[in-house]
Design the sequence.
């Protein structure tokens, strides 16, 4: 087991162009949680930072653009809203990937810290060049 003081975080860069949403989200989740490391400790946040660009070019397989529905509720009576993946994508393309990754993280205190280390950008530009992120190739 690793101690909290010994955790060092790396920066990684992923180009999401032509990648399938679910497969990309599982790999992102593994990096954010740190399960890809040898010294993974479940009760510590030992994951890395991740920059994802070209989020607007992700792929959904089958008829998910029209059939997949995202729900939200305003906590008022009759406040249930339904949006298809296509509607949510038109509003903000990064929301689809963020919701997929957040749904795969555990429901505990660490998840809030882990999702904050995910940086999503719609185009090629990102302001994290100073951190010198390592490029990851997530194509299997």
Sequence:
């Amino acid at each position: 087991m690793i101690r909290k003081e010994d955790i060092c975080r790396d920066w990684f860069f992923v180009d999401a162009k032509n990648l399938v949403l679910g497969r990309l989200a599982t790999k992102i989740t593994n990096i954010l949680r740190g399960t890809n490391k040898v010294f993974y400790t479940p009760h510590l946040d030992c994951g890395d930072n991740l920059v994802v660009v070209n989020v607007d070019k992700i792929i959904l397989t089958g008829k998910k653009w029209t059939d997949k529905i995202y729900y939200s509720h305003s906590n008022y009576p009759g406040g249930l809203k339904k949006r298809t993946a296509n509607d949510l994508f038109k509003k903000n393309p990064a929301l689809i990937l963020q919701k997929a990754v957040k749904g795969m993280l555990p429901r505990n205190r660490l998840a809030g810290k882990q999702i904050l280390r995910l940086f999503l950008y719609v185009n090629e530009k990102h302001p994290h060049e100073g951190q010198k992120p390592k490029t990851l190739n997530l194509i299997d």
In short: The longest helix spans residues 21-33. Residues 2 and 39 are 6 Å apart (CA to CA). The first strand starts at residue 11 and ends at 15.
